[in-house]
Amino acid sequence: MNTKQRYTNKLISEKSPYLLQHAHNPVDWFPWGDEAFEKAKGEEKPIFLSIGYSTCHWCHVMERESFEDEEVARLLNKHFVSIKVDREERPDIDMIYMSACQAMTGQGGWPLTVVMTPDKKPFFAGTYFPKESKWGRPGLVDILKQLIEVWEKDRSHIHTVVNQVTRILQAQAKQLPGKLDESIVDKAFDEFYVNFDEKYGGFGMAPKFPMPHNLLFLIRYWYKTGSSKALQMAERTLESMARGGIFDHIGFGFHRYSTDEMWLVPHFEKMLYDNALLAYAYTEAYHATQKSIYKDIAIKIFTYILRDMTSLEGGFYCAEDADSEGEEGKFYVWTPEGIIEVLGVEDGEWFCDIFDITSKGNFEGKSIPNLIGVEIEENDRIARCREKLFSVREKRIRPHKDDKILTSWNGLMIAAFAKGARVFNDDTLCQAAERAVDFIFSKLVNKEGRLLARYRDSHADFPAYLDDYVFLTWGLIELYETTFKAKYLRKALELTEQMLNLFWDDKNGGLFFNGKDSEELIIRSKEIYDGAMPSGNSVAALNLIKLSRITGDVELSDKAWQLFSAFAESVSSHPSAHAFLLTALMLAFDSSNEIVVVGNLDESDTKGFIDKIRSYYMPNTITIVKEDGHQGEELEKLIPFIKDMKQVDRKATLYVCRDYACKSPTTSMEDLEKILKDHAEGV
Questions:
Q1: β-pair partners for 450
Q2: Is 374 in the same domain as 420?
Q3: Is residue 134, in this structure, part of any structural domain at all?
Q4: What is the tally of structural domains in the chain?
Q5: How far apart, in whole angstroms, are the C-alpha atoms of residue 87 and residue 532?
Q6: Of 589, 607, 626, which residue sits at a domain end?
């Protein structure tokens, strides 16, 4: 009998798709909580902690090999208390124990395997382990037996290891303050320059991760300095990724990362945060260069998200798996015969030739569609063929979809949709962003007004983390700049006030990952490294500066400068690892630039001014629209310096401000043209 029919453990009552995947393992899994820790203390057993997520390929492998195995289950159930954690639901737990794993082994990843004392202090850590020793990796059974022996016979050694690891984690949590000057931005660029792959784009060796916020830094560095090399590095990377197999050329959206240097063979899972940040970066690249390839890719990402990753209520789902039918990438690959069967001989052979579909294949005997080395842009024939192939592919067994909704990742997607709506003048994208905001504020805020982190199956839970607050605030600021609706600015300011109350470190500066009302863990972490996603502190810095410039509230920018100072030592040691923070720093060092349009959005002269302003790439310029009536009155409360700005001769009127000093108002499009050219050239 299948073990999944014979066993049920305590995960069965959870909402997380990842935890539910393990609810019928023979392992007596507990969710993270008091019950598990009290059992471990009462029975004097170590805790076996396993952290992963539902679309993680090696998590699936370890489950099949070990957690569905009765021999492994007997060892765990007799000698350990076993806890499963979804790292996407509890990034605070994951952050601490991933740091411990990296400190103990020099590496990390998922599944994350940690063994710790009943008081949550780790003494063993690793990632994936096969059941039996192979490939030079120790087997889980052997590891468990050794750990059982040490726990029973040499508890003093465990305490020594625990104390060493705890000291390391505490030392890592300490900050060395300092001062960041503009030279740090140049040092980051130099590091990117040295590590740039001239042939294929990206940085360093395989595997290659998209890291779109690094590209955003380079585009804005080009804007600031005029460095053509910075723009060339960003463009080369964006174009190479767009043509590679990391992009799904049939159904759109980006896979997680490339296993090779040329962006051909991806790890096939698709994550919401990757696609949000990439959509934002491609949109920015189009705005800066007006090259159609970037708009095409951004729109395709948005198409994928709206079609496959959006709930009926308007929130955005987390991820899609790499595997289907137990095989990684099976859903996405093709053979020439399969293509020709769908498209016919003439179109089929043409499509195979362009998209590298060969009898030899480029991935385990089959082919990942790609355009590497092909100079062809989107056309009607490609679109027609793709639609036919997509319809056939939809009949395959789909990869698992993680349908939980995270506030943080939704915030990133809201930011991307709002920016796309503004740059592409696309109301559909704006509506998607607004629906998601409405969803979050209706479903992911508790009765006390506290933001929550996760929603699934009509249930919201977990006090929101720093990333939830700052990513959502980023999305709200972008949405305000797109719609000019005061309510989004007000919500952004309210969230920022909550953020500072809950997360700010009054002693050392910067923001903790957990709120002061959250569960107490073995350390209270702060994150400044801009890894797969920009850190919460980095995004907070950008938000604080932008909100300060929109509202004129200098206390917000003061907080940003305190944040820069708090992490100065860490940033100085490896500038390019903090690219988003340095993007915020570039904005902070730049002059304050605001353009206030006084006029009604339904009038042609106001629209004309806004369209003209948006046609220029000016990432450091804030645009504000003050309308008549209630909207204008609400905005004046949020932005006091616009109170005395009025229309001249009942026409849409411009007020251009720099460093909090405003020029005389104008109603002239010619004046606006000159102003924008001056702004764009940095005059």
A1: none
A2: no
A3: yes
A4: 4
A5: 14
A6: 589
**Domain final residue, candidates 540, 571, 589:** 589
**In terms of domains, do 425 and 560 share one?**
yes
Helices and strands in the chain: count of H runs, count of E runs:
27, 19
- 367: domain range? 332-395
> How far, in Å, CA of 132 to CA of 109, rounded?
20
Count the helix, strand and coil residues of the chain and give each as a percent rounded to the nearest 5: 55, 15, 35
327 domain-assigned: no
Backbone angles phi, psi at 406, to 5 degrees: -100, 130
* Cβ atoms < 10 Å from Cβ of 668: 12
- The helix or strand, by DSSP H or E, that contains position 461, with its residue range, turns out to be strand 459-463
d(CA 310, CA 34): 34
pLDDT tens profile 160-185: 999 999 888 888 888 888 999 999 99
What pLDDT does 647 receive? 93
Tokens of 162: 């625990």
Q: What are the C-alpha distances in Å from 210 to residues 182, 396, 619?
A: 26, 28, 22
Q: What is the pTM of this model?
A: 0.96
Sheet hosting strand 29-31, strand order edge to edge: 29-31, 81-86, 47-52, 112-116, 122-126
- Based on the domain organization, do 253 and 287 belong to the same domain? yes
Same domain for 128 and 9?
Answer: yes
Tokens found for residue 404: 């939980």
On whether residue 78 sits in a domain, the answer given is yes
C-alpha distances in Å from residue 205, one per residue of 195, 232, 261, 455, 578: 9, 19, 6, 37, 19
* Shared domain check, 639 and 572: no
CB distance 582 to 188 below 8 Å: yes
Q: What is the CATH number of the domain that holds 669?
A: 3.40.30.10
Higher pLDDT, 476 or 674: 476
Q: Where are the beta strands (DSSP E) in 20-63?
A: 29-31, 47-52
Contacts of residue 668, Cβ cutoff 8 Å, sequence gap at least 6: none
Secondary structure of 245-281 in the HEC alphabet? CCECCCCCCECCEECCCCCCCEECCEEHHHHHHHHHH
**DSSP classification of residue 137:** B
Q: Is residue 178 part of a domain?
A: no
Q: Domain with 548 in it: what CATH number?
A: 1.50.10.10
Digit-coded pLDDT (tens) for 572-628 = 999 999 999 999 999 999 988 999 999 999 999 999 999 999 999 999 999 999 998
